[in-house]
Design brief:
Helices cover 74% and strands 0% of the residues. It has one domain (4-139). The chain has six helices and no strands. The mean pLDDT is 90. The two termini are 27 Å apart.
């Protein structure tokens, strides 16, 4: 299993799925839920500068997700999205006592953003793989 083609294929699939998840969540903030309602949610959660934060989160998730899918500036984008996920975990998914809401159905569960954070860290550590724009540019 430690063959370059298998590793690159796995990184491609992993990067594409992770990127699509971010695109969907960002698009939802920008176009489905809308910035006004997202700003209200961010305000209720105590996110600082809720309107600016809503725009930053929506645009970063949508554009950053697309960049992950194609693999351009991958480690930089994964690092930036990891910081965004860390902020989301801190401001949204931790309870008032600073304790994560683990496994509560319908609660602000921390498992999903934590999984996204770990996935982004893996991309920062292992890179995008050869099946990416970054990989093609590195070989050129």
């Amino acid at each position: 299993m430690d063959k370059p083609v298998v590793r690159d294929a796995a990184l491609l699939v992993f990067r594409a799925v992770l990127g699509l998840i971010f695109i969907v969540h960002g698009w939802n903030k920008l176009m489905i839920t809308g910035i006004t309602k997202t700003t209200g949610q961010f305000s209720a959660w105590g996110v600082p500068q809720p309107k600016l934060s809503a725009w930053v989160a929506g645009l970063a998730e949508t554009l950053g997700g697309a960049m992950l899918v194609v693999g351009i500036l991958t480690t930089f984008i994964a690092g930036a999205l990891a910081l965004l996920m860390a902020a989301a975990i801190y401001f949204v998914h931790l309870g008032a006592a600073g304790v994560a809401d683990l496994g509560t159905v319908g609660g602000n569960n921390v498992e999903f953003p934590l999984l996204l954070l770990v996935g982004l860290i893996l991309i920062v550590v292992f890179g995008p793989g050869r099946a990416s724009v970054d990989g093609v540019l590195a070989r050129a």
